[in-house]
Amino acid sequence: MEEVARLEGLDVETICRGVASGVIVIPANINHRRAQARGIGKGLSTKVNANIGTSSDYINLDTELNKLDIAIKYGADAVMDLSTGGDLSYIRKAILERSRVPIGTVPIYQAGVEALAQHGAIVKMTSDALFNSISDHCRDGVDFITVHCGVTQRVISLLKQQGRVADVVSRGGAFLMGWMLYNQSENPLYDQFDCLLDIAREYDVTLSLGDGLRPGSLSDATDRAQIEELVTLGELVQRSREAGVQVMVEGPGHVPLNQIEANVLIQKRLCQDAPFYVLGPLVTDIAAGYDHITGAIGGAIAAAAGADFLCYVTPAEHLSLPDPEDVRQGVIASRIAAHAADIAKGVKGAAEHDQQMSQARKCLDWQEQARLSLDPERVQQGRTRHQTSGKACSMCGQFCAMQLVSEQLGVSVPNC
Fold first, then answer.
1. Residue 415 lies in a domain
2. With CB atoms counted within 10 Å of each terminal CB, which end of the chain scores lower, N or C?
3. Is residue 273 part of a domain?
4. Same domain, 104 and 222
5. Are both 6 and 119 inside the same structural domain?
6. Domain boundary residue, one of 296, 321, 348
């Protein structure tokens, strides 16, 4: 809490009160000693998460470690390992050992992959295997885990009645739904939630209550199945807090621009101001190859409305496993969204940062502009792309408006 207070420029008492009430979480497993503390929640700067991990089609640990390094270099506050291919335990431990930011995982991925390998079908996974996977991830040092506890039999019933264009787009939600329908049983993560709380409390792991019914199409946004799941998650937030377990809530998904604020307000109301972790939201379905932009647009609106944690979206979303350059672009896009929202929310230091940049531009101080930017390397590359004879950039050259006003009209520029 002291480390978070220093990073945020706030007093420790504010952070303590936020953690005690549950409106702030600090994912920090007692076994992940390398990680720097990050606070997520009310009154704090909007945080950004980057997803990495292997797939069944592409397994290369060196590539994933490179993605991890790039995500951290460009400002990700947390990273999730979503691996589904290769030696999942080995990959997870390597990422944990390498990372200096909090790491999240989705334990049901490993349980499902192992059930497929051992029994020929994900639906033959046992509840014991699922909880064993959760225990393993927490014991290894994972700081937060996504658990799709709100995918209940009632939610499935509503989904069938509702009808959707894209049905279920959450992998964890699909694993669970298939298991529940095949075994004609309730979701073990919901049914045995107290067991989950015991594991999380033992290692001080933050629960990220997953949105298994998040919309994967604008047409499916804010429907009955999505909201019913959210109602259930609100109940589980209260149970988590009563058990002394940190908890945040995940949100949509693909959401039209005009519904984003309402989604955030509904979540905050139903989940008692628990920190809200959103994927995007993506504001259109037709921007394949540019979904880091659609996600940043939605993320800025969501964070300005009160969302606390943005899961990045990369240009490869809907197309392929992201490569290192996709990771860089995804992190930068989400950081732009987060910062824009922080200005709107009045987060300490956000507007001041922009004012410093404006001052550096007025002074034509290119080194300071690079230092203050989200991507200093790109600023320096852009600056040197075309030669210029003066201090101004090559766009305006000798006709730079600020230089004309400062020099030809004799206007003094303070602090230059």
1. no
2. C
3. yes
4. yes
5. yes
6. 348
Which phi and psi (to 5°) does residue 86 adopt?
90, -165
Considering only CA atoms, which of 377, 328, 296, 338 is closest in space to residue 72?
328
Q: How many domains does the chain have?
A: 2
The answer to whether the CB of 381 falls within 8 A of the CB of 393 is no
List Cβ neighbours of 33 (8 Å cut-off, separation of 6 or more). 141
Tell me which residue of 69, 66, 24, 68 sits closest to 44, measured CA to CA.
24
Distance, CA of 134 to CA of 265 (rounded, Å): 31
Rounded distance between C-alpha atoms, residue 410 and residue 216, angstroms: 57
Q: For residue 144, which amino acid is it?
A: F
Quote the crossing angle between the two packed helices 107-119 and 127-140, to the nearest 10°. 130
Unique residue bearing structure tokens 């015991």: 198
408 to 207, 394, 400, 401, 416: CA distances (angstroms): 61, 19, 11, 10, 16
Give the domain-ending residue among 348, 364, 383.
Answer: 348
Query: What percentage of the chain carries pLDDT values higher than 70?
Result: 98
Backbone angles phi, psi at 310, to 5 degrees: -105, 125
Single pTM value for the model: 0.95
pLDDT per position as a tens digit, 28-86: 999 998 889 999 999 999 999 999 999 999 999 999 999 999 999 999 999 999 999 99
Do 388 and 333 have their domain in common? no
Extract the tokens encoding 324: 């290192």
Report how far residue 243's alpha carbon sits from residue 200's, in angstroms, rounded to the nearest whole number: 10
414 occurs within a structural domain: no
Task: Tell me how many helices (H) and strands (E) the chain has.
Answer: 18, 10
Looking from the CA of 113 toward its CB, the CA atoms found within 13 Å total 18
* Number of other residues whose CB lies within 10 A of the CB of residue 120: 9
Strand 40-41, strand 24-25: pairing: antiparallel
Asked whether residue 326 falls in the same domain as residue 359, the answer is: no
Among the listed residues 200, 201, 211, 110, the one whose alpha carbon sits nearest the alpha carbon of residue 155? 211
